[in-house]
Write a structure and sequence with these properties.
Elements (H helix, E strand, L loop, with lengths): L10 H6 L8 E2 L2 E2 L1 E2 L10 H14 L9 H21 L7 E4 L2 H13 L8 E5 L8 H10 L2 E5 L9 H6 L5 E7 L11 H10 L4 E4 L11 H4 L3 E5 L10 E5 L1 H6 L10 E4 L4 E3 L13 H17 L1 H19 L5 E4 L8 E6 L4 H10 L2 E2 L1 E3 L4 H6 L5 E5 L6 H17 L2
Parallel strand pairs: 3-15, 5-6, 5-7, 7-8, 8-9
Antiparallel strand pairs: 1-2, 4-10, 9-10, 11-12, 13-14, 14-17, 16-17
Helix pairs in contact: 2-10, 3-10, 4-5, 11-14
The protein binds ligand C6P.
């Protein structure tokens, strides 16, 4: 039986029951949530971990001698250890806790690039990037006189690898590349790309916002210098995120923000900064959120990332085969290696209208440019409808999506 013909296993039914929000009806229909790339839902264990912390343990971290502060600190730092283990970083010093992928990338742009780059230097990105992996580099270029250069993609939404490699010249200071495209679902062969960049002496930042929720990530195996991701896309709370950074690089970088907790000693004459990773974590952090993120990692570890990836791959194939049967559908993003996302257009229905009609049928998708305007421009469109999957989705969700699209077609006939 071909990959595409295989039905996804029923394991999702077990996972699904762990997500209380999915049990509701929306507009009179059972909710079909196909917008996990924007923000994934949280299992009860995450919601409970945050609530338990708020009820029983809340206090500021790293500051108090009292019991609650110790408990809060232990839980918060325990989550950092879980993150280290989850992505196989070498040490916990390499796990900087941020508010999300966006902040993680801005940190690298301002603290790693800005002090080191100038006119004549180049930052290399790809045409597939989310705005969060474009605009921080444009800011640095404006600030320093460096130049942003962009590797092209083909009509399937795949990187033109030969062109990318040929752009890795001596004057390139950093390659910033997404692991998985949020708009098209393309999975980039980042391990091979990083290996080539390393031969060229170019450090690499990977935007892993759409990678971490769907596949096992091993930053040592990838051999990347930075890997950025968000808690809310991996079934944890919003306002949490991670910057993995190679310790030798983080060590050399100046702080990104100043304030409490990132210092060892302050006087009006000078300040001695704290050790890694605290040097980059000024002010009171999102304590409850990070504890929730730790619980999300526990959940993912017990589900098993390999198992999740295999299930989602089958479900994605099923989605493609079913969408392919819808008349007048145009699939945007047809790369050979894809994860969990499919963009499409239906006839000449505006994507926002399509999203609204689907919502009336209880089906939640995202519409518009997906914060990836250059991708839309590349395909000559202003936006798409996008269905994105997580392991709590199943074939019924896909069938409901297809039925809702058929209904939309009738409405607009
Ligand atoms: N993409 C989507 O619907 P933040 O907002 O910092 O958590 O993540 C930003 C970000 C960076 N890179 C990629 C590849 C992303 O997909 C995102 C967020 C959401 O596709 C919201 S636009």
């Amino acid at each position: 039986m071909s990959h595409a013909q295989r039905q996804p296993s029923l394991a999702a039914a077990d996972w699904r029951k762990d997500f209380p929000i999915l049990g509701q009806t929306v507009n009179g229909q059972p909710l079909v949530y196909l917008d996990s790339a924007a923000s994934a839902q949280q299992p009860a264990s995450v919601i409970d971990a945050v609530a338990r912390y708020q009820r029983e343990d809340h206090a500021n971290v790293h500051r108090g001698v009292h019991t609650l502060s110790h408990r809060a600190t232990d839980a918060y730092e325990g989550a950092r250890d879980k993150i280290r283990d989850f992505i196989n970083a070498t040490t916990r010093s390499e796990i900087v806790l941020t508010s999300g992928t966006t902040e993680s990338i801005n940190l690298v742009a301002q603290s790693y690039c800005r002090p080191r780059i100038g006119p004549g230097g180049k930052i290399l990105v790809t045409h597939l990037e989310h705005h969060a992996n474009i605009v921080p580099w444009q800011l640095v270029c404006e600030q320093t006189g460096a130049e942003l250069i962009v590797a092209p993609i083909d009509d399937h939404g795949q990187l033109e690898l030969e062109a990318l490699r040929s752009m890795m010249t001596n004057d390139v200071f950093l390659l910033a590349i997404g692991h998985v495209s949020n708009a098209l679902g393309t999975v980039n062969p980042v391990k091979e790309i990083i290996a080539h960049a390393r031969q060229c002496g170019i450090p690499v930042l990977v935007d892993g916002a759409q990678g971490v929720p769907h596949m096992p990530i091993d930053v040592q195996d990838l051999d990347c210098d930075f890997y950025a991701f968000s808690g809310h896309k991996m079934f944890g709370p919003t306002g949490t995120g991670v910057l993995y950074g190679r310790e030798t690089l983080l060590d050399e970088m100046p702080p990104y923000k100043g304030g409490g907790d990132m210092i060892l000693e302050v006087s009006f004459e000078s300040t001695i900064y704290n050790e890694l990773p605290y040097k980059f974590e000024a002010g009171t952090p999102n304590i409850s959120g990070v504890i929730g993120l730790g619980a999300a990692i526990d959940y993912l570890q017990s589900a098993g990332m390999q198992r999740i990836a295999a299930y989602e791959s089958d479900l994605h194939d099923y989605m493609l085969s079913q969408l392919g049967r819808v008349d007048d559908i145009r699939l945007i993003g047809t790369a050979a290696n894809k994860a969990s996302v499919q963009s499409f257009l239906l006839g000449d229905i505006h994507s926002h209208d399509l999203g609204t009609i689907l919502d009336h049928q209880g089906v939640a998708i995202r519409t518009g440019h997906h914060c990836a305007m250059p991708v839309m421009k590349r395909f000559g469109i202003s936006g798409t409808a996008r269905a994105s999957l997580a392991f709590y989705n199943n074939t019924d969700d896909i069938d409901r999506l297809v039925a809702a699209l058929e209904k939309a077609r009738q409405v607009f006939k």
